[in-house]
Amino acid sequence: MVDSRPNVLLIHCHDLGRYLGCYGMDIETPSIDALAADGALFERHFTTAPQCSPSRGSLMTGCVPHVNGLMGLAHGDWELHDDERILPQYLRDAGYETHLFGLQHITQDTDRLEYDHVHSEGNLYPGVSPAVHQANRARNVASVVSSFLEAGAYAEPFFASVGFFECHRVEEENGRYGFDAGYYGADDPDEVRPLPYLPDRRGIRQDLAEMRGMVSAIDEGVGTIIDALIAAGIDEETLVIFTTEHGIAFPRAKGACYDAGIEAVLALRYPDAIDGGERYDELVSNVDVLPTVLDLVDVDVPDAVDGRSFAALVTDDEDDSYEKRDRIFAEMTWHDMYNPVRAIRTDRFKYIRNFWHLPRVYLPADVFASESGREVRESDGVPARQYEELYDLRDAPQEDDNVVYEPRYQDVRRELSRELYEWMDATDDPLLDGPVVPGDYDEIALWPHESGDNRFDVR
């Protein structure tokens, strides 16, 4: 597809969703906006999961979480299947030198990833304290990458995974989970635009105002790296990808299969092949990124991946055809508690199937203990959840009107329910066989019970 293989630079961060100026948000993100303006920006890019490790696993393997095995957090003893391969391994086999900067959070064993060079310490989990993993802050990671590029300490072509800590919440002194405003600064809460899917309340505005400091740090980090690429004279021959793993760390976003939870930025820049200044509204899943990258660097795409390449879409390659998606799938199984959900989204509809007894909206621990979480606990964190949800995204884009039982939507309900089941069946989803136990089940089963028993059955 290209005359020579480009370098590949994958920049990713936490909990950002599409909270960027280039997506119409009321925040200045000039570096990311410029990256998007010079390349391709995807308006409807969604992740396979509204949580970190499972979504990152999909990005790196091209397979959905229940296929690659990473159905919960990597530091929670969930792992990719032993035979699962990831993007840097495919590229290394094709002659690329591979580098890891900052965090990765798809395995507890960094050696399992087989990078040629690991430039960061503590690259698994971002931590819950502002003092933990300082090296993974965007400013510090970008500085290391910049020095690496300026020194020419690489062989071409190279692949570099660059992971930023932000916008992950941190536990603060009062037990509240916030965005470390003492380090990053914050905007005026009265000046921020409210989120359309949450009530306009003071605590939510305060959280948004603080999160924006972290967003600015991400933007600065991206700018530092792009400047270093230009200074090194390799910006024209480098495929730069910027993305995140799920929506922002707010109620109804992180941890939820609503659009706000699975939406994610995706921008690609590669002047030699990708048309600049294009915005695409096609449905795209983050399992599609791996096959697209392999296509762009002329490496065969494995048959086993769930994703499909959109390289022909962004390059206008007349010798290839782009197979447009008419639906994407999302899921969640384990986070800090059992939350089994499967979802299907089309251009117009979202169908969600819930498989456990839980509150209306699942709030991950960091969101639950945030100012935003406190504002909605009674409305979202207490009432029982319905087992089926259906949203007409044309009439209710915020997914706040469940029409699953309305007579005029029954044909849609049955069709999407059938398609979701067929997808689960075709991909051997273990949830069809019953509750899915955590990866460390054997250890948990040996914990002493309060009654004094030596073991108990959590299933």
From TrEMBL:
* Domain Sulfatase N-terminal positions: 6-299
Q: Which domain of life is it from?
A: Archaea
The name this protein goes by in its record = Sulfatase
Q: Which GO terms describe its molecular function?
A: arylsulfatase activity
Q: Say which family it is in.
A: Belongs to the sulfatase family.
| Keywords noted in UniProt | Hydrolase
Q: What species does this protein belong to?
A: Natrarchaeobius chitinivorans
Q: Does the keyword GTP-binding apply?
A: no
Q: Which InterPro entries match?
A: Alkaline_phosphatase_core_sf, Sulfatase, Sulfatase_N
**Cross-referenced Pfam families:** Sulfatase
